[in-house]
């Protein structure tokens, strides 16, 4: 194997090396330039020593396979790679952003900042999981924050791609990952569940909220296994001003059984963006760890974990976010009924789906807006009440339903923006009957169907 | 370079024609036939003639156990397979029979070994069914990539330089990187009689520059192939299993 010296100014395959930006245990990063690529770039080079850790090589091989297949704003753009026959490297975009590591000295952070950070990372995870990849090493050092607050995930050396061989699985008996953030099922060797990333994010949020790790940095397997039965101190015990909803979200992420965590990263992001809509359970109020009896039961007689559909994509399909745009007052009772039936059908077939009921409260440029109606009632609150009334016949569990009144000039634009921001999987809306109004204003459902980032069902009452 | 790899055609004209056409559209510059051109299917003469033309034009073709049985006899084959071989022998031209009997068992080029079954003893027609079989086959060659068939169900075995063996069930139509530091044994799916539950024909597309291997799935006229089997008077189960991919 030929090894060239990685000194500044050296050229490898057209890439001119610059400074060493970072040197970690398994790889180092150098800034590079190339006449054909006009963007800031990093070259990642695996560190291979005498008595080298085989994980460094296998991790590099995994990243070499996975990174070129990823796209979108939440991963660094892939530029080039070379294998081990000469100098191995991966060249990628140098993301304009700071490591989430830089947040740690400021812990505990303000609650709003934690929620925004969590929503940004959960959104990035939703995007990654949709590309059939589970990250499996989510921790502050592997999260970059762009100036606009969005998150970029880096380092896919421990990741698992649904459609590629998992070299890590066969190579090592011990689980690889970062002990303070590793999900219990990952400790046991399970490497295909996207919920493992939600656990790790929960552990990061715990740290940002309380300033301490939820689980210690003990690398030995018996010590890591302790998280299967011993729960961490509730955040509210360490930080009394932690709101119940945030504790609810964090402790749900940290559930031992993956099936008890949020069904998807998109649903977790949804909760972090709508704190007032988080359904509070006894988790929210806990001020002490579980008692000895519960811990002993988990240790020696644990409940069996429900089998999960394998792989990231199968689980996403089972837990979509459905948004229903409801007109108030209803155009017709028949349309109302038809819309509810459409929702019922979807909810019956996908048990982990959740429904967001939307209504657009039209504002006007011409008049000075007031949220109070003629009778002095708050229109916003009134609409929420009407939305709940609309959904009541669906008889859905409360944690599967949320209600949102959007104030906007254009209903179509508001619905589209909502679907985009909340990673909605399926939009349902009613078609207005033919009318003069529709001819003049155009059809909301038509515009939404044309531009939506997801599937759209337009419901029409049969004449 | 892109190399198209066809194995276990088994006299299925419709499946072979669909795969050849698909491979041409993908820009495959070289064809390799990994054996079992005949047996089970209703159009062995067409399939052998097609492969003979390809070989004359530079393609590589290897012998499979069904091809060998035309001359060597049906020992080791089950009743249904044996019946198909007897019928096939009766309709093939002497030239076609000679072609099948003279096919080689192995072919090596660059870092690749082509073989129908287990490379450690190719004439014994052992199946590569698990990690142990794969290791035995890889131990018998210095080639970095072994490509074989015989099993009718896609698998990829990888061997690292620490002698760890990975087993992977490759999904359809996904280029799987054959990383340079590892040695690989790829079991291709069958062109003419898939048995992994997907009735679509399967062939391999090897990109030697990446390098990567894709298990390509091609829908084809299953009903037409089943018709040919019935018209030949072969056992009915050979016709029905095509639609099930079993």
TrEMBL record, chain A:
Keywords: ATP-binding, Kinase, Nucleotide-binding, Serine/threonine-protein kinase, Transferase
A molecular-function term among this protein's GO annotations: ATP binding
Chain ranges passing through the membrane: none
SMART domains associated with the record: S_TKc
PROSITE patterns tied to this protein: PROTEIN_KINASE_DOM, PROTEIN_KINASE_ST
InterPro entries assigned: Kinase-like_dom_sf, Prot_kinase_dom, Rossmann-like_a/b/a_fold, Ser/Thr_kinase_AS, UspA
Signal peptide (from-to): none
Annotated coiled-coil segments of the chain: none
Name this protein carries in UniProt: Serine/threonine protein kinase
Native source species: Humitalea rosea
From TrEMBL, chain B:
Organism of provenance: Humitalea rosea
Listed transmembrane segments: none
GO annotation, cellular component aspect: cytoplasm
Entry protein name: Diadenosine tetraphosphatase ApaH/serine/threonine PP2A family protein phosphatase
InterPro entries in the record: Ap4A_hydrolase, Calcineurin-like_PHP_lpxH, Metallo-depent_PP-like, Pesterase_MJ0912
CDD domains per record: MPP_superfamily (cd00838)
Domain Calcineurin-like phosphoesterase: start-end pairs: 1-209
SUPFAM superfamilies: Metallo-dependent phosphatases (SSF56300)
UniProt similarity note: Belongs to the metallophosphoesterase superfamily. YfcE family.
GO MF term list: phosphatase activity
